[in-house]
Amino acid sequence: MTDRILTVRMEAHPQDSHTLATYEATGGYRALRTALSSMTPDDVKAQVKASNIRGRGGAGFPTGVKWGFLPEDLRPRYLVVNGDESEPGTFKDRILLERDPHQLVEGIIISSYGLDVHHAFVYIRGEYPKPARRVQQAIDEAYAAGYLGSDILGSGFSLDITVHLGGGAYICGEETALLNSLEGRRGEPRIKPPFPAVAGLYAKPTIVNNVETISNVPWIVANGGAAYAAIGPERSAGTRMFSLSGHVNRPGDYEIVMGMTWRELIYGIGGGIPGDRALKTWIPGGASAPWFVPDEHLDTPVTIDDVGANGSMLGSGAVIVMDETTDVVAAAHRIVKFFAHESCGQCTPCREGTTWLERILWRILNGAGRPSDLDLLLDVCDNISPGLRWPPAMTTICPLGPSAVSPITSIMRHFRDEVEAKIRTSEGASVG
Amino acid sequence: MTNPIADWSHANQERAQQLMARYPDVRSAVMPLLYIASLEHGHVTDEGMRQVAELIGLTPAQVHSVASFYTMYKRDGVGRYLVSVCTSISCFLRGADDVLAAVEEATGTVDGETSDDGMFSVEHVECIGACGGAPALQVNYEFVEGVTPDKAVALCRWLADGRPDVVRSDEMQALFGGRASFDPGPADPEGAIAPVPAFGPYGSAASGPQRAGR
Lengths: 432, 214
Ligand SMILES: Cc1cc2nc3c(=O)[nH]c(=O)nc-3n(C[C@H](O)[C@H](O)[C@H](O)COP(=O)(O)O)c2cc1C
Ligand code: SF4
Ligand code: FES
Fold this sequence. Notes:
The complex is a heterodimer. Chain A is 44% helix and 11% strand. By secondary structure, chain A is α/β, with parallel strands linked by helices. Chain A has three domains: 8-229, 3-Layer(aba) Sandwich (Rossmann fold), CATH 3.40.50.11540; 239-323, Ubiquitin-like (UB roll) (Roll); 328-426, NADH-ubiquinone oxidoreductase 51kDa subunit, iron-sulphur binding domain (de novo design (two linked rop proteins), Up-down Bundle). In chain A, helix 4 packs across helix 7 (101-115), helix 16 (328-342) packs antiparallel against helix 17 (348-365) and helix 20 (406-414) crosses helix 21. The longest helix of chain A is centred in the C-terminal third of the chain and has 18 residues, at 348-365. The model of chain A has no long low-confidence stretch (mean pLDDT 96). Chain B has two domains: 10-67, NADH-quinone oxidoreductase subunit E (Arc Repressor Mutant, subunit A), CATH 1.10.10.1590; 81-176, Glutaredoxin. Chain B is 38% helix and 8% strand. In chain B, strands 2-1-3-4 form a four-stranded mixed beta sheet. In chain B, helix 2 runs antiparallel to helix 3 (46-56) and helix 3 (46-56) crosses helix 4. The interface between A and B is large, with 70 and 60 residues. The complex binds flavin mononucleotide (FMN), iron/sulfur cluster and FE2/S2 (inorganic) cluster. Flavin mononucleotide binds at residues 55-59, 61, 63, 82, 84-87, 171, 173-175, 208-210, 213, 398-400 of chain A.
């Protein structure tokens, strides 16, 4: 049974997994040859659909279904690969870009063939110059070898790939903000619909997929969609990259088959907590996700649907572990501060709300909290995300605003006594 | 027609033309062009924005509106070395605030400022995708992971004393880094020549345009 797909080459060839020579020597570009010589574009799409792969950028939308939304008759179409990776705790696309860029490039070429795309873009966050260099080198090598450009391998299919560096803005990971940025505009999310598949880059039909999603395509085409679908639990098919960080003995990137328990992930793969301290809480899917606690969640399975059913999300696969020494109010404040800083400012509840939340948490943290702050916090949260439901209700153009609510509802639900204690201390301080 | 970027280096003028040809719509080149303008002038100046605007047929106000949206287009002067310390959640949990304080102390420069001698700019930044090697920082966008306050101080001294023209992630990581998010593989010869991401088409040490007149 296959248990790893994306990280096999970099592990076997740590010195040169990024080169064309090693990529070809380990089976690289064979799937592309197969696709171009013996598959129709519809065959490629059918295999991706059959794989049941769900997007790895955060929302977990089935890739084959998304690809089906392209209108039949409109050309040109574009493929845009999302390498903006800025969700705090996430560093899994970086390793794929840096250590196996040809895997991504081959995935782009095969996907573009399936989608009838002739110009694809890779949007990489500006703080990732080395990953961008590696991808550009791979693209240059692929052009020289005849895998890119016109009439690829004599198939009549042509494709160009352009690498675009971001300018430092988390919001550009949101797909419509990314498209605005790629068009040379401010990276502000667009109101949907229309969805990018209908009117995306330059108002043309556009598929946006995450780096990890597209990196899986060569394997899917080489081995068949059914083989991919057979890996892991039914609705969480395939392997998945996890970024493990915070208070664990072995932080890092891990490619695993979904379905293990959180205990196995944190204590097995992550090597447990430094100093054998107790686990206090962890974030299962990036800074936007509501937090989990040992009593309720340690033995629940790591799948997209189980995490969703437990009121959170697997998101970008970023697992942030906090031990018993963690000041959860300080941790929540740090995350809310991130969202306040990254709000693009278009929607009032997000722009004003995140700033308010940050200020209230700051004063609680610094001994100036008031008893009314607890209700105030929840009130502001409710303004951003009415009803405080999961998944959140939306009053805003994009989900960034509601994401800022997650750390607050998490500490209020699991650690309310700690927040109250901080406020009581504040009162003492102000009297004394 | 006059050439709006006649004062740019020949290599950078050529890069600009290549970049503009890379996109179906020339407006898309505004972001890469702003990076090259930063290399030419040390940061994003009014003149640089005017030049980029003229090059791609926008108004200077439109270019300014784009530049001001993103944190990496520095509109005030930037030091020779931009030290960006991540203080987001995973780095925070592993002591990032102490690293930032050590960098401020070692450079005599507070968060958000540039030293009087123009050597350093210091900033705290949100997650830079190195959380497995927390706490992490970047110098001119080149990573150093698994730093400690002491190692961060030593790194700043090394920069101030040696004044390297090119900063490379691998070199700094070997000297001042600790645990990294993942095995970086072989050393990368390219590195940053200015506080601009060292990506070939926009300028880096091993290829492309050179820092002009600094
Ligand atoms: C605020 C915000 C930030 C996002 N950041 C990223 C990101 O950095 N990378 C990414 O692939 N998707 C990100 N997404 C999700 C994208 O909008 C989009 O769903 C995804 O790129 C689609 O690719 P996939 O279907 O392959 O997952 C973000 C979404 C939001 C709302
Ligand atoms: S929710 Fe926030 S980040 Fe998203 S569009 Fe509105 S203001 Fe911008
Ligand atoms: S939180 Fe510091 S690099 Fe991600």
